[in-house]
Every structure is written in structure tokens, then in C-alpha cells.
């Protein structure tokens, strides 16, 4: 069976044909590790907001209710952690970044996502537009668990999973690429799993 790719066996109907391992990764199967650089923050939903700030004509701020009312998409994607596990066909529900970025005027080309707890990660704007990134608040049909980033996290599945910031509260847009938390500590500034960009210099 080794010559038969997972794409041809046992695939539930409707699942996109994406199961493939980037170099150096292994399939963790049904497991879902929790990787957090600090304690799990707990923000009450009435205190939660999501904002787009920085180099914008006017900052955008959404309450939890306003965020809930935005059209959500169902997303089924593979995720790839820099610690070498990959997980196939994870199912999320969330709001495309496009929906939020459409509401601001900017000449910026980068963003720094910021989170409860102080975590940050940088991303090129061109990597979070055109249906490539979401703010997700549901996983496998349930509200996103706090340990996995609930109430809401970023999901940028085409880059290593450290870019998918948990407990996200917003993004600062900038014309300057400012490294985030792991990027400042030696992880790759971009983090493409298919080019195995784990650390600076890869
Ligand atoms: N706010 C925040 N987001 C974060 C992290 C973190 O420590 N804090 N860890 C990152 C890393 S390194 C990974 S691999 C994934 C892990 O997500 P999980 O715990 O849901 O598996 O979250 C990313 N997002
Ligand atoms: Mo990670």
C-alpha cells in the first residue's frame, strides 16, 4: 500500500484532496497537540474585540457580537507544525481575513497579528488575502477550545502553524516587516513548510 497515496483511499466525500506531507513532517493522525508559549489567557466575550490598526485610514473594531454576525466559511485544511507534526483535514469555521481587510484602506503590505497574552506573528498581506487566511472560532463543529486558541484564532494553513496565532485580537498593518515572537527568536521570517523554512537561514 505504500505506493498508494492517502488521496486514493478512505477519503470522506467532499474532503479536498490535499493530504500530503511537506518535507520532514509526519502525520500525527487523530492527535492534536497543544503548543503555547505561555498560559492560556481567558478573556470574557463581552470584553473581547478584534481590531485592524496601524497604517489604515481608520481603525476597524468589532465586538464579539459583530464578529459573530459576519458570514462564516467552513474550512477543511491540513496543518503543519514546525515541531514536525502535520494533521490532515482539520475542519474549522471562521471569517476570511478578506472580509475584515476589505473594510479598511491601506497601503501597507505586512501585518503583525497580536493576541491576548502578548504573542505576535508577522505575515505578508498577500498571504492572508484571496481566501488564504481566516479568523476561526469553531473547530470540528464546536466552539474553539481555549487551549487551541478560543474564543478565536488565526488560521493560515499554507504556512507553519506558529503563524496561526491563538487568542488573536487583531492585526497591525505596516509597510515594514516586523518580526513576531518566534520570528524574533530565530524562526524563519516567512515559514513555508513546502520549502522547509523552519529557522532563519533555511
Ligand atoms: N497566542 C499564541 N498563538 C500561538 C502560539 C502561542 O504560543 N501563543 N503557538 C503557536 C505554535 S508554535 C503552534 S504550533 C500553534 C499550536 O496550536 P495548537 O496549540 O492549537 O496545536 O499555535 C501557534 N499560535
Ligand atoms: Mo509550533
UniProtKB/TrEMBL annotation:
Residues annotated as domain Oxidoreductase molybdopterin-binding: 38-182
InterPro entries to which the protein is assigned, alphabetical: OxRdtase_Mopterin-bd_dom, OxRdtase_Mopterin-bd_sf
Stretches the record annotates as Disordered: 1-23
PANTHER family cross-referenced by the UniProt entry: OXIDOREDUCTASE MOLYBDOPTERIN-BINDING DOMAIN-CONTAINING PROTEIN, PROTEIN-METHIONINE-SULFOXIDE REDUCTASE
The protein's name: Sulfite oxidase-like oxidoreductase
Phylogenetic classification of the source organism: Bacteria, Bacillati, Actinomycetota, Actinomycetes, Pseudonocardiales
Amino acid at each position: 500500500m505504500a505506493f498508494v497515496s492517502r488521496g486514493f483511499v478512505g477519503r470522506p466525500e467532499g474532503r479536498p484532496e490535499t493530504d500530503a506531507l511537506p518535507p520532514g513532517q509526519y502525520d500525527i493522525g487523530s492527535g492534536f497537540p497543544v503548543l503555547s508559549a505561555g498560559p492560556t489567557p481567558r478573556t470574557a466575550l463581552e470584553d473581547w474585540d478584534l481590531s485592524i490598526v496601524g497604517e489604515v485610514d481608520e481603525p476597524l473594531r468589532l465586538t464579539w457580537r459583530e464578529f459573530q454576525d459576519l458570514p462564516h466559511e467552513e474550512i477543511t485544511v491540513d496543518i503543519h507544525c514546525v515541531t514536525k507534526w502535520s494533521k490532515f483535514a482539520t475542519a474549522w469555521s471562521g471569517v476570511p481575513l478578506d472580509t475584515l481587510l476589505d473594510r479598511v484602506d491601506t497601503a501597507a503590505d505586512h501585518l503583525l497579528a497580536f493576541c491576548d497574552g502578548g504573542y505576535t506573528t508577522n505575515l505578508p498581506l498577500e498571504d492572508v488575502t484571496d481566501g488564504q487566511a481566516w479568523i476561526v472560532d469553531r473547530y470540528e463543529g464546536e466552539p474553539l477550545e481555549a487551549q487551541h486558541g478560543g474564543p478565536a484564532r488565526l488560521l493560515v494553513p499554507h504556512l507553519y502553524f506558529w503563524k496561526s496565532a491563538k487568542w488573536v485580537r487583531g492585526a497591525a498593518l505596516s509597510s515594514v516587516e516586523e518580526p513576531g515572537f518566534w520570528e524574533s527568536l530565530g524562526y524563519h521570517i516567512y515559514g513555508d513548510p513546502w520549502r522547509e523554512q523552519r529557522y532563519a537561514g533555511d
